[in-house]
Write a structure and sequence with these properties.
alpha+beta, SH3 type barrels, 4-stranded antiparallel sheet
Length: 170
C-alpha cells in the first residue's frame, strides 16, 4: 500500500510539473512589445538658484543678537542661595510632584505631616523640614496640605523663592 501511495505522489508531481511547461510564445511576444515601446522623456534637473550671501548692516537699527527689553533685576535677590553644605534629608531625593500627603497628626502641640515617597515609605515631617529637589522648606502644615517655599534658579544666575503646596491625596 505504501508503494502505491509513493507512486501516486510521484505521478501527481510529474503532472503538475508538466502543466508548468509548454509554449510561452505569448509571454515572449508581450516582453518584446514592451521593450519596443519608446521610453517616456526624463524630466530635466531643476536649476538651482545661486547663493547670494547677506551681510547685515545695522544702519541705526538694533543688532539681532541683543534682547529688545532691558534686563530687569529689580525682583532678583542676589543674596539668596541654597545651602549646599547642609546634609540632605531623605525626602529631598524625590521630585515634589512624586510626594503624597497621606495624613497629619498632632502630638504635644506640634503638627506633623505624613508624606509618602514613591518607594512607599511614609515619613513624618514638621515645620522647617526640607523636601523636594529644589531645596523646599516646610512653612506650614494643615489638613488642606503642606505649604513650603522652594529656592529655584531664576535663569539669570541668581535664585528666587517660589511657593509650593503638597495637597492631600484623595
Amino acid at each position: 500500500m505504501k508503494a502505491f501511495k509513493r507512486v501516486g505522489t510521484i505521478a501527481g508531481l510529474c503532472l503538475v510539473l508538466a502543466g508548468c511547461g509548454g509554449d510561452d510564445r505569448d509571454l515572449r511576444d508581450f516582453v518584446a512589445e514592451v521593450k519596443q515601446r519608446p521610453a517616456p522623456p526624463i524630466e530635466p534637473i531643476p536649476e538651482i538658484a545661486p547663493y547670494t550671501p547677506y551681510s547685515y548692516e545695522p544702519g541705526g537699527r538694533r543688532t539681532p543678537f541683543t534682547p529688545t527689553a532691558p534686563r530687569r533685576d529689580f525682583d532678583r535677590n542676589n543674596d539668596l542661595a541654597p545651602d549646599v553644605d547642609r546634609p540632605r534629608e531623605a525626602l529631598e531625593a524625590f521630585p515634589l510632584d512624586a510626594l503624597r500627603l497621606v495624613g497629619t497628626i498632632s502630638s504635644g502641640g506640634v503638627t506633623y505631616a505624613l508624606i509618602q515617597a514613591p518607594d512607599g515609605v511614609v515619613y513624618r515631617v514638621t515645620h522647617g523640614a526640607h523636601l523636594g529637589q529644589n531645596y523646599g522648606e516646610i512653612d506650614g502644615i494643615s489638613e488642606n496640605g503642606v505649604l513650603l517655599t522652594e529656592i529655584v534658579p531664576d535663569g539669570l544666575g541668581g535664585y528666587i523663592r517660589r511657593p509650593a503646596t503638597i495637597a492631600p491625596s484623595r
